[in-house]
Structure formats: C-alpha cells, structure tokens
Write a structure and sequence with these properties.
Five copies of one chain form a homopentamer.
Chain A: E1 2-11, E2 14-15, E3 24-29, E4 41-45, E5 54-58, H1 61-68, E6 78-82, E7 85-88
Parallel strand pairs in A: 4-6
Antiparallel strand pairs in A: 1-3, 1-5, 3-4, 5-6
C-alpha cells in the first residue's frame, strides 16, 4: 500500500455504469517526510475521506473491486484507511 | 486509476482475434496541473472517448477484460470514464 | 498496453517446461515520438512479429497466460498486435 | 519480491473493517548496497518484524491477502520474511 | 518478463512457512547492453541458476506461485529461464 494526501475530487458524468455512485478522489502520493512525489492516483473511497486527509491506498484490482462491493468492477485503486499518524522509529 | 488525455488511435490489422472490433486509444498520462508525464498507454475504449478528452484509465487486467465483455481477453488497460473536471481542494 | 519495437530474440535452453516452444521476443518500449524509453521487456509472441515491427504489448499475467494457450503458464507479457500506424490527433 | 528496512508503524483508526487487528509497517526499499531508494511502502506484517529489520516484501494482491488470512482483504503488500543476510557473489 | 543477472542469495530464517525450502536469489535487472539498471529483485528459483547467470524473470503473482508448486504461496517473482544469449536484430 502507499500513503497519499487527498487533493481533489474527480467528476465524471459519462462513465462505466458500475462506477455510478462511487466517490472518486484524486490522491497525491507522499514521501517519508510528507512531500508530494510522483503523479496523482484516482481512488474510490468508501471511508468518506476529506480534503487534506492522509490516506492509505491499496493499488490492486481485486482488492479495490472488493471494496466497491460490486462484482468485477473496473477499478484498481481504493482508500482503505485514513491515517492518524506514522510512528517513525528512532534513527530513521 | 490514472488520468490521461486521448492523443491518438492505434491501428492494428494483425492482432489477437479477441481484440477484433475493439477501439484502441493512445492516452498520454497527465500530472496534477495537466502536463503530459510519462509514456503513453494504449487502452480499449467502450465509452466513445474522442481526441483531447481527459479520461479515467483503469490499468489492471481483470478490470479491463471485464469492460471488453469477452472472457479472458488479452488487455490490461481501459477507459472507464470521461472526466468533466477535477475539483482541487484549496491549498492543493 | 504499451507500444514497443521488436529488437531481438531471446534464446534459453534451460527453462520452465511450459515455455518450451514459445517464441520469446525482446521488445524496446517507445515514446509518443517513437524514441526508445525505459528497459526492454521480454514477451511471448504468437503473432509472428519480426525485427523492427512495432507491436502492442499486454503486460499482465492472466492475459499473457491466455495467449500462450497453456493453463497457468509462468509468463506476464505478450505481443497482442502488430501496429500498422498510430493516428495522432491534431495538436497532440 | 523486494528488500526494505522497517522504518515505522502506521496508525489508522478509521479503516476498512478487514484491516482491523492487522499490524501495518512502513518499509523503505533498499538498493543493492543497502541505501534507501524510492518511496516507502506500507505492508502488513504477520512475522512480528521490528524497527530496523531488513525484510522481504511481496507486492501483489493475492499473496498479501493470503497472509492476512481473511478472504479478499484489501491489501497488496506484505512482509514474508525477515532477512538474516544476503550472500553477494564475488564480483557483484 | 525482464532480464537480470544473479548477484546473490537471500538468507532468511524467520519467514512465511510456505517459503521454507524455496531458493531465493537476488537478481539485478539489466539494460539492452547488459548494464545494471534499477533496483534488485528477489526471485524464487526452481531452475538452479548460479552466480552470474543471466535469467528470465516473471514478475507476477499467479505465475510465480505456480512455479513454487504450493497453492497460494506469498511470492511474486520467479526465475523462469536461464538465458543462453539474445540475438539482437541488425540496426538495434
């Protein structure tokens, strides 16, 4: 899984019917010291994450499809947790 | 999922028979500020996306195969939505 | 899927038995303007692609295994089409 | 699989119910000469790895889901071994 | 699939039980002209590859799990062939 920050919401009227009703967030991956790194990912969200939240993303088809609760949905990325904090070990 | 812009159409006469009839688009991934980034992806399109459209891509085998509607087709990327706009949260 | 150019053939005598008889090509991924980019991929080929051909690659296990026609073969990349040309849209 | 060093623990109160009880580590991928490289991965851990341990990560949905022991859990990365050492061959 | 050179052996005493007995190699991916590129991958090996061998790697869960011969093992990368040579086409 990766960590990212919720930076936006994707609006799409014309989409696959299995995506209707799904909330779709734009999430910016973050580095160890919380800097943005790499390109944004679009993820479905069933946990009601909000702007600025740090979230845990799963980036794999079966797992994301499971979360959407619709069999064989065309998704590959999902929010699976909202992060309270990360305890970095000493010396890291 | 990732966001990209439709930049072309791929023409292939000699291909796997399960791809016959499938529309195949060349899509350029985009950054948060809509700049091209990384290499183009080829995606099947069942939503009739057109030149310049910003689209939502799923990049996973099972999901793409599902969209093509043919069991076990050899595809791994598909257009799953045409994007109206992205609401970027303030401060992002 | 990605686009690449066939640059070589891989010869392997000692290999998994399910790969015996499979043609294995070395394919160099290409950018939008047909420049080599990134590292070469090895792909099975059932379409008889030749040196210099631009090909469409699927890079996913189930899809590649399907093409090889042997259940649960240890492959993850396959040629699924030989590209005639790409129609780039104006302004792209 | 990849090798990484355990650098932290992820704390998430609000998460998918199938993740409740799962220990979630932040792991920094390492190069051949044990330097950090690339962005951290979040992995479930059933082996009780600790701070500073070098671990073997599997980064694939089915495999990670298997380890968690809950059918179809939304995870894609897991610790599958704690590394004692790597024997580098001469000349490498 | 990708090509790499066997550079080491990974020793792990405390690991998932399904990995017990599996030989685990460290493999350095190679470029077209056989230079090291990118980070090392850990792969199971059932073909008895040795130090310095150039090998063909499959990097996908189902395929690697198949090779290990244990149902649903937590692996995602495996050696599937030892490469004799690559015939590069003229002009490449």
């Amino acid at each position: 899984m990766t960590i990212g920050e919720v930076v936006g919401t994707v609006v799409s009227t014309h989409k696959d019917e299995k995506l209707i009703g799904a909330k779709l967030l734009m999430v910016q991956p973050l580095t160890l010291d919380r800097k943005p790194k790499g390109e944004p990912l679009m993820a479905i969200d069933m946990l009601d994450a909000g702007a600025g939240d740090r979230v845990l993303l799963v980036h794999e088809g079966r797992a994301a499809q499971l979360l959407l609760g619709k069999d064989l949905s065309p998704v590959d990325c999902a929010v699976v947790g909202i992060i309270d904090h990360v305890d970095l070990h000493e010396g890291c």
